[in-house]
């Protein structure tokens, strides 16, 4: 456990670190983890305000996590609750007050809010102490709620949260709210770009790109953990990869409607044109000012390459789409990349994108059953996909299914 001076120093340092996280989902995970560390909380959740409701957006629980196999993640469902005084989180969002409850099973009579013990009954977990704080921006707007559950002493016994910690945690929550608002603006700008692409290509929906992006970071994290990559690098790459994966098909805005919206399969000539969306997408990020620009270009260009070297566009210049010197084949086209010539982020998004496409209805095909999809991925291991990533996929398939439930097609 941290002492008071260490907590203050930690919060000051986190104020800078949180501003460096760009993706809102990665940020929520980091905020909840650091808040729990400040007060030694066993579990916690974050709710984000959406209109007049709070969306249950992220949760962590050390006790439940320890029951899982190494590398597995908690599976949870998102849901929304009204912003009113009836629930604990709703009360905090509605009033802007902080609630420090010693035992939610023993609330005093007459309080307007109550504790919903349905999760405890379902999971066998026992919620006891709870510290719930509003996430307020510099303007004083409440954009969500941070809920910390079951403070623990040095021996692991559940205790109430210390009253003296409230101001510090509230200060952290305010810093977190500013970071969340900034990350939400970044996500909104990306989704606006996606909506522009959706006007051109009905398949390119917000749900689709959110699923592909979320699949990609789970896949990457599972693979990276098995590779022994240090957590700091994994966290950094997850942040960049999620945003880049959302824009994997942004180059389709440059493809003619006659091809993009054709209600059926493309002919050979049309496929040649369609393949240019990879180069067009990468070209949008040719002026690279950040690691995100680099990652977005890599993903856009490489997500249709195949492990066995039969994909596209191959070794090309993103400025003109022509084959790079030394990579010209006999027919004048660019040699496709294969194996580890394909950048990792491209290989990850390739698998995530195909999985989602197979699980979704298209104008030229029906949605596949999950058993068909999983068999197809096994068949394509070492052909279309990196075998290590396919192995990682099956290690985290429960998390993949959970993501699909969180981002359904509207």
Descriptive report:
The protein is of the alpha+beta class and 410 residues long. The chain has 2 domains: 4-182, Beta-Lactamase, CATH 3.30.450.40; 201-406, Orthogonal Bundle (Hypothetical protein af1432), CATH 1.10.3210. 48% of the residues lie in helices and 11% in strands. The chain contains 16 helices and 7 strands. Strand 5 and strand 6 form a beta hairpin. The model has no long low-confidence stretch (mean pLDDT 92).
**Structural Rg:** 23 Å
Going by helix content, strand content and strand pairing, the class is alpha+beta
Question: How many structural units, i.e. domains?
Answer: 2
CATH homologous superfamily annotation of the largest domain: Hypothetical protein af1432
Largest sheet: 7 strands, antiparallel
Low-confidence parts? none
Strand content: 5-15%
Helix and strand sequence:
HHEEHEHEHEEEHHHHHHHHHHH
Average pLDDT, rounded to a whole number, is 92
Number of strands: 7
CATH architecture of the largest domain: Orthogonal Bundle
Return the CATH topology of the largest domain: Hypothetical protein af1432
Inertia-based shape: elongated
């Amino acid at each position: 456990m941290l002492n008071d001076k260490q907590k203050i120093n930690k919060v000051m340092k986190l104020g800078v670190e949180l501003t460096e996280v760009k993706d809102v989902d990665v940020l929520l995970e980091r905020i909840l983890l650091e808040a729990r560390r400040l007060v030694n909380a066993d579990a916690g959740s974050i709710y984000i305000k959406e209109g007049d409701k709070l969306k249950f957006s992220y949760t962590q629980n050390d006790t439940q996590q320890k029951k899982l196999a190494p590398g597995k993640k908690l599976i949870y469902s998102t849901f929304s609750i009204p912003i009113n005084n009836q629930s604990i989180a709703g009360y905090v969002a509605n009033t802007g007050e902080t609630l420090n409850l010693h035992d939610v099973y023993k609330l005093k009579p007459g309080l307007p809010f109550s504790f919903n013990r349905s999760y405890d009954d379902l999971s066998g977990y026992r919620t006891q102490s709870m510290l719930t704080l509003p996430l307020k921006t510099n303007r004083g707007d409440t954009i969500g709620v941070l809920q910390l559950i079951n403070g623990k002493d040095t021996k692991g016994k559940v205790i109430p949260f210390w009253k003296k910690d409230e101001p510090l945690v509230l200060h952290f929550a305010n810093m977190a709210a500013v970071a969340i608002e900034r990350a939400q603006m970044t996500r909104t700008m990306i989704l606006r770009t996606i909506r522009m692409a959706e006007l051109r290509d009905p398949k390119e929906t917000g749900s689709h790109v959110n699923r592909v992006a979320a699949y990609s970071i789970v896949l990457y994290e599972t693979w990276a953990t098995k590779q022994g990559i240090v957590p700091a690098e994994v966290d950094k790459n997850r942040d960049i990869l999620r945003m880049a994966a959302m824009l994997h098909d942004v180059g389709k805005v440059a493809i003619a409607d006659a091809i993009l919206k054709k209600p059926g399969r493309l002919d050979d000539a049309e496929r040649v044109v369609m393949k240019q969306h990879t180069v067009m997408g990468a070209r949008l990020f040719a002026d690279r000012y950040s690691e995100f620009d680099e990652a977005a270009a890599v993903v856009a260009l490489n997500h249709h390459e195949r492990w066995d070297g039969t994909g596209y566009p191959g070794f090309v210049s993103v400025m003109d789409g022509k084959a790079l010197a030394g990579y010209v084949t006999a027919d004048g086209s660019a040699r496709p990349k294969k194996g580890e010539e394909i950048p990792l982020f491209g290989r990850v998004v390739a698998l995530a994108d195909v999985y989602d496409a197979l699980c979704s209805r298209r104008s030229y095909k029906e949605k596949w059953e999950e058993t068909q999809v999983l068999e197809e991925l096994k068949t394509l291991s070492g052909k279309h996909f990196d075998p290590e990533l396919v192995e990682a996929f099956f290690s985290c398939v429960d998390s993949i299914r959970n993501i699909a439930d969180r981002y359904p097609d509207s």
